[in-house]
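USER: Note each token:
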Amino acid sequence: FFNDTATTEIYTLSLHDALPISRSIESAQKKVEGRNFDIRKHLVEYDDVMNKHRMIVYSRRRNILKNENIHESIIDLLKKVSINMAHSTAISKRPQEWPFEKLIEDIQALTGVPPDSFREHIISSQTPQDLEEKVVDLLSTTFSNRQETLANDELFFNVEKQVYLRTIDRLWMEHIDSMMRLREQVSFRGYAQKDPLVEYKNDGFSMFEKLILNIQSNTLQT
């Protein structure tokens, strides 16, 4: 180190060797930063899917809370469920091929009405429109009869509101858990050359549609 020439040579060699190492470190840092950015971007995109679900459910819940009487909304649910049940049954042009027994079981599960009291009426349907009208009429009549068991309409309207809210809350919490499990599951689909985010969006959409249908049917059933 007392020799100036030797010191200069050592410093020059050290600097020359350090440059590739420095570039390698810089390159590695950029790769890590890029990977972290992609991770954050994907997290935001995953969260965006759930946020859309949350906005729809919370909006529906707010509408229930701000209205004193939601009877018309319940009647609307009843019609939607009835029509969906009829459409799921009238799946071909030939009424003979319609799964009437499945529909009858669903109606019984929903209303508690004995099947023998409406089976013949339902299976006599010859067109999708005819079946739809009969299912809507059956569920509407059953619902009205249930309402008449409570002499106080105000009490009944309050029950409708509380049941609707509790059903939304319970099924929404279950949906959150299901979406969390789905998020974990789709990560493995990358090994099958599938985009996990696309898979999450597609499956999440189907699950959300099922959530809405379950909220409607569970509210009416309760």
